[in-house]
Specification:
Structural class: alpha/beta
Number of helices: 8
Bound molecules: S-adenosylmethionine
Helix content: 25-40%
Largest sheet: 5 strands, parallel
CATH superfamily of the largest domain: Tetrapyrrole methylase, N-terminal domain
CATH topology of the largest domain: Cobalt-precorrin-4 Transmethylase, domain 1
Strand order of the largest sheet: 3-2-4-1-5
Distance between the termini: 37 Å
Shape: globular
Order of helices and strands: EHEHEHEHEHEHEHEEHE
CATH architecture of the largest domain: 3-Layer(aba) Sandwich
Strand content: 15-25%
Radius of gyration: 20 Å
Length: 262
């Protein structure tokens, strides 16, 4: 992607992956990048907003004890969660968000300054921050340079917490969402499923499929459950709902595996 109208002293944006919740899982590269930032931009992420903002502030206080940075929250435009045309709705919502982010950059970043996004998990996995920054750079209304700092994803945290490989020898791994799992009706041998608020595996998995489920990975609330879907499927559903109500939000991810490679 090309950045339009960029000069050597155009503001620099850093998209810093901060891992899935444990401050110890932040890389040295990420800490060094955080220390370059004048401004941390925070995109409003709905229901998890307060917790995720608090976690980001805690990370900055821990790794930049001398301060010298500021936080700027960018409000989200409203979003229809159950649209008829999902792709069109997401595009429209992204456009609205883009305009608000450009406004915030223009107001907060002078030439030569560094802005940063602390991106949950790894910036390359189901996160729109990089897509937004690419679009802003390409549009050229706010000339900006940018860099991406990779991180531990919730997927690697899941595998490590359960002490598993995501594949048996030589097998492929399919990464998907709960929504897509339902549309595709299951299928692949090793499926890692993210963004699944509806326990889609209960509808598409076979009773003898194995599931390794993890919630709040890397945090003090971490919960792990594994077994066949017949053994633990309902337990995961009940545990998930109980935790979501008790804590007020939930992030969970799982690996679903067929007994045999097909
Ligand atoms: C918008 S995606 C962001 C993924 C992130 N970029 C990553 O690398 O993990 C959010 C999804 O990631 C997963 N996730 C993120 N953090 C998690 C955590 N600490 N524990 C369990 N799942 C997590 C959940 O599936 C959640 O629905």
């Amino acid at each position: 992607m090309t950045a339009t109208g960029v000069r050597d002293d155009s503001p620099n944006l850093l998209l810093i992956g901060i891992g899935p919740g444990d401050p110890k899982q932040i890389t040295i590269e990420a800490i060094e990048a955080m220390r370059e930032a004048d401004v941390f931009f925070v995109l409003d992420k709905g229901e998890h907003k307060h917790t995720l903002l608090a976690l980001r502030r805690e990370i900055c206080e821990r790794y930049i004890p001398e301060g010298g940075y500021r936080f700027v929250e960018i409000p989200d435009p409203p979003r229809d969660r159950h649209p008829d045309d999902y792709t069109a709705e997401v595009r429209a919502w992204h456009d609205g968000r883009l305009a608000k982010i450009e406004e915030a950059f223009a107001a907060e970043l002078a030439d030569g300054q560094v802005g940063a996004f602390l991106v949950w998990g790894d910036p390359a996995l189901y996160d729109s921050t990089l897509r937004i920054v690419e679009q802003i750079a390409e549009a050229g209304r706010f000339p900006v340079r940018y860099r991406v700092i990779p991180a531990v994803s919730s997927i690697s945290a899941l595998a490590a917490a359960h002490r598993i490989l995501l594949n048996r020898i030589g097998e492929p791994i399919h990464i998907t969402t709960g929504r897509r799992l339902l549309l595709d009706r299951g299928g692949d041998t090793n499926q890692v499923v993210m963004l699944d608020s509806g326990c889609s595996f209960l509808e598409v998995a076979e009773p003898d499929d194995h599931i390794w489920w993890g919630a709040y990975l890397g945090t003090d609330e971490e919960i792990l459950i594994c077994g066949t879907v017949a053994e633990v499927g309902q337990l995961i559903k009940v545990t998930r709902e109980e935790a979501r109500i008790r804590i007020g939000w939930i992030l969970d991810v799982y690996l679903l595996r067929k007994p045999e490679y097909r």
